[in-house]
Amino acid sequence: MGSRENILQAVRAKQLPDKPAPSLEQNWIRYEDRRAQFAAALQSVGGRCEFVAGGAAAAAKLAEHPAWSAAEKIVSLVPDVVAGNCDLATVDDPHKLEDVDFAILRGSIAVAENGAVWVTDQGLKHRAVYFIAQHLVLVVPAGAIVDNMAQAYEKLQFAGPGYGAFLSGPSKTADIEQSLVIGAHGPRSMTVFLIEAI
Amino acid sequence: MSRNGHSATVANVGHPALAEAFTLDRPRARWHDETLWFVRSKRDKAAWTLPEWELLRETASAIKAHTMSRLAEYLEQFERQAQKLGVTVHWAKDAAEHNEIVLGILQRRGAKKLVKSKSMLTEECHLNPYLERHGIEVVDTDLGERIVQLAGEPPSHIVLPAIHKKKEDVGEIFHEHLGTPAGASDPLFLAEAARQHLRDKFMQADAALTGVNFAIAETGGIVICTNEGNADLGVSLPKVHIACMGIEKLIPRAADLSVFLRLLARSATGQPITTYSSHFHGPMPGAEMHIVLVDNGRTEILGSDEFRRSLNCIRCGACMNTCPVYRRSGGHSYESTVPGPIGSILAPSRDAKLHGSLPFACSLCGSCTDVCPVKIDIHHQLLTWRKEINHRGLLSLSKRVGMKLMSRLFSSPRIYAASGWLARKIVPRLPRFMLYNRMNAWGKRRELPEFPRESFREQFARRKNGKGGHGK
User: Fold this and answer.
1) Where are the domains of chain A?
2) What per-residue string of b and e applies to B21-54 under the rule 16 or more CB within 10 Å gives b?
3) At residue B338, does pLDDT exceed 90?
4) I want to staple A169 with a disulfide (CB 3.0 to 4.6 A). Which of A45, A181, B38, B467 is the partner?
5) In this structure, what is the dihedral angle of CA atoms B239, B256, B81, A158, given to the nearest 10 degrees?
6) What are phi and psi of A190, to 5 degrees?
7) Which long-range contacts (CB under 8 A, 24 or more apart) does A37-40 make?
8) Long-range pairs for B341-347 at CB < 8 Å and ≥24 separation?
9) A68-111 residue pLDDT tens
10) Nearest CA to A162 among A108, A198, A112, A116?
11) Between chain A and chain B, how many beta carbons pairs sit less than 8 Å apart?
12) If you classify domain A31-87+94-157 with CATH, what class do you get?
């Protein structure tokens, strides 16, 4: 008998009384001003949130980013905001993205309670770009803010292969004496544009 | 202590001796205590931002109880769904089989360089030394884990692996191994040096190994939570991703994550959510993904009515941060991969003789139970373990004799009253060497209380007879 059968048999050996799964539909927290809550939550984890009317306004804000003027290699999947100069489709190996300075990508849901944005690898050839770029910019429709994680999961579907993540702020560590350091392995900054029209 | 020093093959020193050694450096022990209490305070603030905190804990606990009641079913469903996504699912009954499986995958792919993100399971299985013996370069990429790996030590905390190190210690370790200037100890500078060093390792890796925070039965996906992004960066470059998990990591539905992800980071560090909460469903295009499901003693705990609930642990570390014993004795004093209150339940379940001192490393204050996000009754289980250790005859001689004497004393009112009288008369007259010696553990680094002239019962009897008067 293999380990699979051994383990399953050992699990089954103890007949436990069936306990029902609890309902997830509860009166979870809601916010009067979801935008303000999202911006505050994102700021508290080291990210930055900007409310903009459209692509041009976002581009103008992006130009104010302290690292933008020195950026050389830019990946953008949101041409309405800015055109990139590195086309992921022509990159065969994600290792070649090592020197990407900025990645401008789309997020589909913003969560007010924790400042997180849901992103996926749909239409994205190399998911590594989320983590390997020095600076990350996510463009999210302003109407896509939900109050809490329960509402977020109601919108998510996991049919078939793929990658998805809640990203909340830049990469960080506090592993040396609990001192917060921004920019552990991934992006050193994360900017979220909540955009009215795109 | 060598990285493998907590291996189950040698006799353990025991918690009291190691804790005593830890407390000898008083300023450092105090710093450790205060640092962890700071993390605990951040947890409180984060919990208080949600009016539904207690409801979340109840719900999480109920989801876990439900999952355990149908674990076999959910394991099979998870396997089926993961396979549909193109994942190869492996089953390992113990640490040895787990290690062989991982090595086998690496060898088939000709992989020599492995980057790892945090996995307490692989610590438990002593995977790193095993792979290194077989010529694999293993790099822990979580900054805290990299620090202790370079120092040749095991992690001292499951969320904050290098919490016992001061920045000067880290500076020395990096000076030796990464070539940073001697004396450099600024956390910003050291973290940047680690970023550059580990970027190289990420770029060169042939394969990546991660732990698993949650495995979703209904979808076949796994979820990994980090702040550094090291798991994500690690697995998105090479063509092989191996994820290792204990069988207790299952949850039934993806939507259950809306409960657990709200609890995990708030309980662990006081963040509203980890920076990266990544959902992996199948391998990247053109790559392969393996999931290793490990038992290694878990089914035995599942079979125990007393200790089953300890499997509900989501490894947030809150019980460690709040524990007055852990904070003052350090993670290494537990000689167990998972230290602290929850580790003191899990470790004896694995080997009660080896880890028999751990359930006693507890004041039964119950703070661990209060902060546990999945409502494990930790301090009750620790008390149960004490009884169990006694039943199995594993109690030390001094405790056995002591307990027997106490039991005699407390079960007879006459002996109790007589020995109290005797103690009040004699103890205050005894010379110091007779009171403060090896026989009296209570007298170590503390003074005995002043003995009263008469007992409560004597006072009571005196007043009842009208001889005592009022007041004093």
Assistant:
1) 31-87+94-157
2) ebbeeeeebeebbebbeebbebbeebbeebebbe
3) yes
4) A45
5) -70
6) -135, 125
7) A37/A112, A37/A113, A38/A110, A38/A111, A38/A112, A38/A115, A38/A145, A38/A194, A39/A115, A40/A115
8) B341/B368, B341/B378, B341/B379, B341/B382, B342/B310, B342/B313, B342/B368, B342/B372, B342/B376, B342/B378, B344/B382, B344/B385, B345/B307, B345/B310, B345/B378, B345/B381, B345/B382, B345/B385, B346/B301, B346/B310, B346/B313
9) 999 999 999 999 999 999 999 999 999 999 999 999 999 999 99
10) A108
11) 246
12) alpha beta
- Of B10 and B345, the one with more pLDDT: B345
In whole angstroms, what separates CA B267 from the centre of its chain? 14
Element (DSSP H or E) covering residue B292: strand B288-294
Tokens of residue B453, six digits: 């002239």
The predicted pLDDT at position B435 comes to: 84
The DSSP secondary-structure symbol of A97 reads G
Helix (H) or strand (E) holding A120: strand A116-120
In this structure, are residues B117 and B212 in contact, taking their beta carbons and an 8 Å threshold? Answer: no
DSSP B359-404: GGS-----HHHHH-TT---HHHHHHHHHHHHHHTT-S-HHHHHHHH
What the block records as the tokens of B4 is 């493998």
Q: Which of B331, B307, B109 is nearest to B208 (CA)?
A: B109
Name the token pair of A184.
């552990």
3-state secondary structure of B172: helix
Structure confidence at residue B467 (pLDDT): 58
Of the partner residues B216, B274, B295, the one whose CB lies closest to the CB of residue A7: B295
| Residue extents of the structural domains in chain B | 1-49+317-395, 397-464
CA atoms of B402 and B382, how far apart (whole Å): 20
Band of pLDDT at residue B9, cut at 50, 70 and 90: very low
Q: Where are the alpha helices (DSSP H) in chain A?
A: 3-13, 34-44, 55-63, 129-132, 149-155
Calpha distance B373→B214 (Å, rounded):
15
Helix (H, G, I), strand (E, B) or coil at B279: strand
User: In 3D, which of B15, B5, B11, B7 has the Cα closest to residue B353?
Assistant: B11
The contacts of residue B417 (CB under 8 Å, 6+ apart) are: B455, B457
- Least Cα distance to B28 among B163, B173, B157, B147 occurs for B163
**Residue B92 · residue B295 · CB < 8 Å:** yes
Q: Which of residues 94-133 of B touch A (CB under 8 A)?
A: 97
Q: Looking at this protein, which amino acid is placed at residue B144? A: G
Convert the pLDDT of each residue in A9-22 to its tens digit.
999 998 899 999 99
| Cβ-defined contact of A95 to B237 (cutoff 8 Å) | yes
Distance CA B235, CA B231 (A): 6
Query: How far apart are alpha carbons B335 and B354 in whole angstroms?
Result: 9
- Do residue B275 and residue A2 have CB atoms under 8 angstroms apart? no
The closest of A190, A174, A53, A181 to A110, measured between CA atoms, is: A190
Tell how far CA B127 is from the center of its chain: 18
Q: From the list A16, A148, A165, which residue is nearest B278 (CB)?
A: A165
| Chain B: closest CA distance from residue A196 (Å) | 25
**CA distances from residue A130 to A118, B346, B428 in whole angstroms, order as listed:** 12, 37, 71
Give residue-wise pLDDT tens across range B147-185: 999 999 999 999 999 999 999 999 999 999 999 999 999
CA distance A38 to chain B (A): 11
